[in-house]
Specification:
Elements (H helix, E strand, L loop, with lengths): L2 E12 L5 E3 L3 E3 L1 E11 L4 E6 L11 H11 L11 H11 L4 H19 L3 H4 L8 E2 L2 E3 L4 H13 L4 E5 L4 H12 L7 E5 L6 H10 L6 E3 L5 H10 L4 E3 L6 H10 L4 E5 H4 L2 H14 L2 E5 L5 H12 L6 E4 L11 E2 L8 E2 L10 E2 L1 H4 L4 E2 L5
Parallel strand pairs: 7-8, 8-9, 9-10, 10-11, 11-12, 12-13, 13-14
Antiparallel strand pairs: 1-4, 1-18, 2-3, 4-5, 6-16, 15-17
Helix pairs in contact: 1-3, 2-3, 5-6, 6-7, 7-8
The protein binds magnesium ion.
The site of magnesium ion has 6 residues, from loops.
């Protein structure tokens, strides 16, 4: 089987809540997502999606995903999309770095591999653990009172894990955490995600200010060394996210005992192939994971579901159903949240069919090979 053509579509994903706010005054109103289609000479087609969380979250941005795709895609024509190791090596040889550019391409190849073998991606990644898996709900940064109110709203939707967007003024963040914690019920889980927004001393102040609260701290500071210093000053459980971007960083964090949980985002590490490698390593090391992506719609949510559902539940801290945050559906067959939980499709591949009437005309396609 050979790749004959690669196309890309651009789609805007508005948020039900109007906007999503996190540290540093950052916010997004409409997510700019890119869907990738890989066509083959066997008539089998695969789909992937990449949606950065704006340009200020990771070194990634939406137009960059499309520019990178146009640079990389011509190098991939003629390759067999079911040979994922060879495919990934070809991407890394043709373009150094830029993992987010490669993510949707790799995702589309997994979709094709599943369709060729008649298996859901979750089965190819180890099998489905149980009927479904647990989700968390991100709570956009707001006043302590508004964030506390949202806990009740989201609990009514079935969520029991809540991730507060903090990383602002440490005094207000301490109030946010206390105010929200007062709303929690037995069995709820609270995470305060600073998204690199605190200075080292500010983070230590917050950690001290919430030492009586059952709360996880996530990615307090920009640099790994700062996060490690905070870790060494607090006994709150620690999640590392933005700095955990490849296997070597996970091993470094493990050796330093820098975290209890990592946040594994598919596009941050370059696609499902590399995410699965890190997932399996973390399972072996005993590091729990939140499995998700930077953002996305139905196709990213489907990919998250396959990776999360094939992860042992005791190592899966939580996952995300991004398609429930946005007003536009870009594919049929995507998993839908039920009682705060999600399940991977049992259909071959990712189990989704794009809505081309929503995606519109392609914004990029490879030229015919000579
Ligand atoms: Mg995070």
């Amino acid at each position: 089987m050979q790749i004959t053509e690669i196309l890309a579509y651009q789609v805007g994903l508005p948020l039900f809540e109007g906007s999503y706010k996190w540290s540093g005054g950052n916010s997004v109103d409409v997510f700019d997502s890119t869907v990738v289609e890989i066509r083959t000479d066997a008539g089998i087609t695969g789909f992937g999606e990449i949606c950065p969380l704006g340009p200020a979250y990771l070194p990634a941005y939406a137009a960059g995903a499309r520019a990178g795709l146009a640079e990389l895609a011509p190098h991939l024509l003629g390759l067999d999309p079911t040979h994922l190791g060879i495919f990934n090596q070809a991407m890394d040889r043709a373009m150094r770095g830029h993992p987010y550019v490669k993510s949707a391409l790799d995702m589309a190849c997994w979709d094709i591999l599943g369709k060729v073998t008649g298996q859901p991606v979750a089965v190819l990644m180890g099998g489905r653990f149980g009927d479904d898996f647990v989700l968390y709900r991100a709570i956009s940064q707001d006043t302590p009172e508004a964030m506390a109110e949202n806990v009740g709203v989201y609990r009514a939707q079935g969520y029991t894990k809540f991730q507060l967007k903090v990383g602002g003024n440490p005094d207000i963040d301490i109030q946010r955490i206390h105010r929200v914690a007062a709303e929690l019920q037995t069995g709820d889980v609270l995470v305060a995600d600073a998204n690199t927004g605190w200075t080292q001393h500010g983070a230590i102040r917050v950690a001290n200010g919430v030492r009586d609260v059952d709360v996880y701290l996530e990615q307090p500071c920009m640099r790994y060394e700062e996060c490690l210093a905070v870790r060494q000053h607090t006994d709150r459980p620690m999640v590392l996210d933005e700095v955990m971007d490849d296997v070597a960083m996970v091993l470094r964090g493990y050796k330093d005992q820098a975290m209890d949980v990592i946040n594994l985002k598919i596009s941050k590490v370059g696609g499902l192939t590399k995410a699965r490698q890190i997932r399996d390593l973390c399972v072996s090391l005993g590091i729990a994971m939140t499995i998700e992506d930077t953002w996305g719609g139905d196709i990213v949510t489907a990919a998250i579901a396959h990776l999360a559902h094939s992860t042992p539940p005791e190592m899966l801290f939580s996952a995300t159903d991004f398609n429930s945050y946005v007003t536009v559906s870009i594919a049929e067959g995507a998993p839908q949240r039920q009682h705060g939980r999600l399940a991977a499709s049992s259909e071959p591949g990712l189990g989704i069919q794009p809505r081309f009437n929503v995606l519109g005309a392609p914004v990029y396609r490879t030229k015919d090979r000579a």
